[in-house]
Amino acid sequence: MPALAAPLTKADFLTDYRLAWESRHASLAGRKEVFMGKAKFGIFGDGKEVPQLAMARAFQNGDFRAGYYRDQTFMVAIGQLTWQQYFAQLYANPDVEAEPATAGRAMNGHFATRMLDEDGNLTDLTQTKNSSADISPTAGQMPRLLGLAYASKLFRQNPELHQFTNLSNNGNEIAFGTIGNASTSEGMFFEALNAAGVLQVPMLVSVWDDHYGISVPAEYQTTKQSISEIMMGLQRDGEGQPGFEIYVVRGWDYIGLVETYQRAAAVCREQHVPVLIHVTELTQPQGHSTSGSHERYKSKDRLTWEEDHDCLHKLREWLLAEGHATELELDDIEKETAAVIKTARTAAWAAFFDPIKAERDEAVALLEKLVADTGTENTLHEQVEQLKTNPTPIRADIVRTMRRILRQVRNEKRSFGRRAVQRHLEQLLAENADRYNSNLFSQSELAVGNIEEVPATFAPDAAQVDGREVLQACFDANFQRDPAIFAIGEDVGKIGDVNQAFAGLQDKFGELRVTDTGIRECTIIGQGIGAALRGLRPITEIQYLDYLLYAIQILSDDLANLQYRTKGGQKAPLIVRTRGHRLEGIWHSGSPMQMILGSIRGIHVCVPRNMTQAAGFYNTLLRSDEPALVIECLNGYRLKETIPSNVGEFTLPLGRPEVLKQGTDVTVVTYGSMCRIVLDAAKQLAEVGISVEVIDVQTLLPFDTDQLILDSIRKTNRVVFADEDVPGGATAYMMQQVLDEQQAYRFLDAQPRCLAAQPHRPAYSSDGDYFSKPNAEDVFDTIYELMSEDAPEQFPAIY
Fold first, then answer.
1. Cα 365 → chain centroid
2. For the chain, how big is the Rg over CA atoms in Å?
3. What is the arithmetic mean of pLDDT over 301-307?
4. Which has the least CB within 10 A, 398, 543, 593, 782?
5. Which uninterrupted H or E stretch holds 580?
6. Any idea of the CA torsion for 769, 770, 773, 776, to the nearest 10 degrees?
7. What are the residue boundaries of the Transketolase-like pyrimidine-binding domain, all occurrences included (predicted)?
């Protein structure tokens, strides 16, 4: 058994007692601030203070946390949160200096450390205590936690990674996870624990068990009402054997907690054995959140028990019984900590509110001048006075008032005062766009748009090969170039994925870099997110696009908004590789683009028509620092393509469509496998005198950043949007982008048309494909009808 750390002293005990009471007073004060209207909502860590102090004593530089919103005591104990920052988040202060975790973008209790410097580069993660950015969905932290731990395994076992000394100390880092007992009912929890046991990674999970999930007690949550009992099958049989170590400790037993965490962390860190610590008999003195009172659903006996077993009261009893402190010493600490929190709260409110008040006063001064200039004091004065006398204005009040007043003076003569208000409003809108709308994507030099474009080159005698071989050569070249790149997924390793794009690469680069996984899409993505957060370059494969649904929640809630919710403080440049569109059957022909486009803004979406285009996107993305989803054409792996001589170096820009065929009568906007079908139809249409311009958008996010489609519509004055999604799906998205964003409606002489699949999954068989998704005849008829409306004599009705 690993040796434990040096025993704690009286000074350590009193330091922890002081911090525990600071945290308790912070929780109590936070609840009051919500009820006073100074914050919208509050959720706090009261009742969990003592186990978090014990966990913090086992947490070292280089370690990572993926937790949930009860962990305030822990974050302060490791020096990554101040109480003023705690209240700044409660007030939603958008100043990243005041609230560095989320810049006011997430409600309180969502913790994160800033892992990027001002240029968007990773700092030395081995010299800091790190917290990945929290999310609210229950158990949603678990997939990412797995990836954080998996990175340590790679850093330890892959000698090629030992050079990255700013990212890891040879895999010495533990990934600490925290979760409430009720949230362990989620499938993501079980999936992540099973994967950690299979992978044998240093993942230490603490379950804070206070017996409830909001109002629902444990008997409705967990078999046997004990997560540790039902997970005992994971317990390893002995040192060197696969499995977990599982510990159970009471949440008010200070010394038992300290010893348990020291022992558990030593095993986890040194042996890379995952650990589950079930912390029982915890309480939640203020209930779940400010949304209600726990007295509504807890019995009197339970409330009495919770008061008796409050971990702070138990810690006080222990300190007195062991002679480590006197009643007077502890009373003084409790009074002093209340004062500390009051000071932090007052400072945080001033830092949040004073700038808003100054903005309000400046706006009022300009508006009063406008009122005087327009001579309409009687109609406008009341609105200005209401803003002026508002005791707690928010920025929306300022902007709303200015916009409404400018609306009312629209018929007045343009005065100096009116222009001054307009200019100030523009300034405020720009400032608030930075506060609330910025950093959805990377703003570093490695952002996708900054990657140098390198055209593909082809030798005169270039071979015609299966499309999968183009990808295989691309991945081979990139794996040689960058040792931080690895690929994981179902069937990716030994057989090289079901379509053979990784064939032979496991033998060449080793199992750590080209790795099979179990069937667990959610945690495959999480495994990639956590590893990417730590500076590695994972490619995670989802075998078919239809199966992305298993992982869409993690992609949406975690990866897509990571840079946004940290305002550029963290990044995870994960590449998700999958395949879809035409093939056979309900669950292997998916094109759920509407779902994807609506749920993962913040992740680029590439829809290459062939494998050469896909290789160009991979080359670009593997040199950038942004996440992306690449959807390859499922029916394209055996089609012949010319392999570029610079297959691992050429890059394709994202957001730039390609004109596949020039035309003058109709523009067809499409992507993916539909490109071949539209080109077939265009050839048939040419035979009857209709000239079709075919445009492959190539990426849906971003979409046509240079407005090349607009140029085409200026020429043809007609447009058809075609794809394999359901009606109103990606075709509607493309139409909105072109007609609304690019304002192409100004150049249309005919109704824009959308051609999509049927509103159901595609039926099996070739006939099922033909009658479920658009075919060349559908494209022909749609375009022919469009032309017939304009020139019925030249193009008489077919049917």
1. 42
2. 30
3. 95
4. 782
5. strand 575-580
6. 140
7. 465-639
Contact 345, 87 (CB under 8 A): yes
**Local structure of residue 122 (DSSP, 8 states):** B
pLDDT mean over 644-662: 98
Question: How far are the Cα atoms of 296, 489, 529, 548, 565 from residue 574, in angstroms, in the given order?
Answer: 45, 13, 6, 15, 17
Cα–Cα distance for residue pair 146/200, rounded to 1 Å: 10
Strand, coil or helix: 540: strand
327 in Cβ contact with 320 (< 8 Å): yes
1, pLDDT greater than 60:
no
Give the DSSP per-residue string, 210-258: -SEETTEEGGGTSGGG-HHHHTGGGB-SSTTSSSBEEEEEETT-HHHHH
Cα(498)–Cα(516) distance, integer angstroms: 11
- Mean pLDDT calculated for residue range 644-654: 97
Distances from the Cα of 744 to the Cαs of 371, 709, 736, 779, in angstroms? 40, 9, 10, 21
The two tokens of residue 235 are 């317990």
* End-to-end CA separation in angstroms for the chain: 83
Condensed to tens digits (0 to 9), the pLDDT of residues 161-195 reads 999 999 999 999 999 999 999 999 999 999 999 99
Between CA 603 and CA 760 the distance in angstroms is 26
Identify the active-site residue in 110, 278, 424, 588.
588
Q: Is 588 part of the annotated catalytic residue set? A: yes
The model scores a pTM over 0.90: yes
Does residue 241 contact residue 273 with C-beta atoms inside 8 Å? Answer: no
The contacts of residue 551 (CB under 8 Å, 6+ apart) are: 521, 522, 524, 525, 542, 576
